Amino acid sequence: MASMGDTSPDVGRFARLQDQLAGYGFLAPWLIGFFVLTLGPAVASFYLSLTDYSGLNAPHWVGAENYLRIATDDERFWTAMNVTFTFVLLSVPLKLLFALGVAVALNKGLKGLSLFRAIFYLPSLVGGSVAIAVLWRQVFSGDGLLNQALNMLFGYEGPSWISNPSTSIYTLVLLAVWQFGSSMIIFLAGLRQIPKDMYEAASLDGASPARQFFKITLPLLTPVIFFNAVIITIDAFKAFTSAFIISDGTGGPIDSTLFYTLYLYQEAFTNFRFGYASALAWVLVVIIAFFTAMSFLSARYWVHYDD
Amino acid sequence: MTDATMTAAIARSEKEASERSPLTRAFIYAALVAVSFVMLYPLLWMIASSFKPDDEIFTSTSLLPHAFSADAYRRGWNGLSVGFGQMFFNSLVVCILVVIGNLISCSMAAYAFTRLRFKGRGFWFALMLGTLMMPQHAVLIPQYVLFLKLGWVNTIMPLVVPKFLAIDAFFVFLMVQFFRGIPRELDEAAVMDGCGPLRIFLKVILPLSTPVLATAAVFSFIWTWDDFFAPLIYLNDIEKYTAQLGLRTFVDATAQSDWSALFAMSTLTVLPVFILFVLFQRLLIEGIATTGMKR
How far is A89 from chain B (nearest CA, A)? Predict the structure, then answer.
């Protein structure tokens, strides 16, 4: 290819210019989007976080005041942190465990794999919708499906899980775990890449299935576990719709489902504190970045890469 | 080890690997069936309940309505000042425009990243990967202010226009992965035939990329259909509501007094996703598996 361009310097220069034009021409939509909708707004939102902007007034510079208030004088921020971290720390490991367990079970070469796979995948496709949040609201209400079933099977009269502040968060954790399907599919793809002869060699050496799982499957799957863990964690921090619908947008009862994103939404679009909400947004970005960075740093010690 | 014991060992291990003990198998099956049952039951029960009278919803866990009635669908469909038909239509318009926008802009970006040589390509590609991880909240408020100043709030523009600017980095990444697998000899042959970058894109790359384009289209449609946050922020008038917003408004309007109508409308809003899932299951599953694996 190079020899064609080299026949004359003029043609070469022309070709190179044409390459630049074509490259930037095709990249133009993305570039415009990047500057106008991502980079520009990111810079602007950092600036706004240092102001008292309400969307109506001109922004007044207040320095680090918003951040100081978040750290020292905002009870609901700490409530939201508490709720969000409870949700993340419970839902992420449970979801991973379910996804991995079911994937390993499905990977045994059972009949009906594709049917099971479809059934387990479906919830993660519809789980984020308003309809499912509405359904959850009924299922876990005082006279909802769960309590009817508990009553019928065990004669147990359950409380209203949704309107009880000490249990409401767990209904949301359950809703997240219910959507383990897409991680399971990524696990299945990972399992299929583990060479079969490794298992054959191991069982020749007399390794039990449990030993094979811990010595072969698990170590070779760590890159996939890592990938899934990062994705699920970021998703969990961003969860919004389910908490919004289940609590009517309040984060109730008594702020027990006040996800961070829900608090941010309320500050921005109910109270019109754009400056303060921007500061909240940046705190969330830093938290997510911190978690992602920590997982990448820790990966060195537990993620097994090919030689 | 003698030859005989060795053969026996191999035979045993092969047997174990391929079929395991019938008891283990039965146990795994039973567990899988139990988990599927528990997972699907609420969904099936929701559909069944949309055909039940209200008092039956709170007294029966059965999947079969005692007194079958489709009246809830009629009540729900016209339960708000604007019919659900209008809101389904609004959702459909947004979804179709988003699919078109994503397909055009993301495939163009992916083509530039994989096939065209220009200064700064690696730099922009790294930035694109960086935006994959970035939470939307960081840009939410300035974007809102921007769309407000443009007079786009309470229109579908904020939901649609960004998609024509390849804002969904996930799809760019998905297409980059796919385009990399298309043999370069095909482009080179086209260059020999005198094709420029545009014609190679249209005549070589795109026709060979129907699987990834279809995957991106179906995911775009489903995620846009299910999206609640953006319509919640940007749409104010009920005539402009999407189906998800309409359903949320219907929750308030019925004040939970007409659960069968609520479940009827819930079922209808899930239906398009379910149909796409049935039709394109393989595509969706492979799409997830490949992006998850190839990094």
Answer: 19
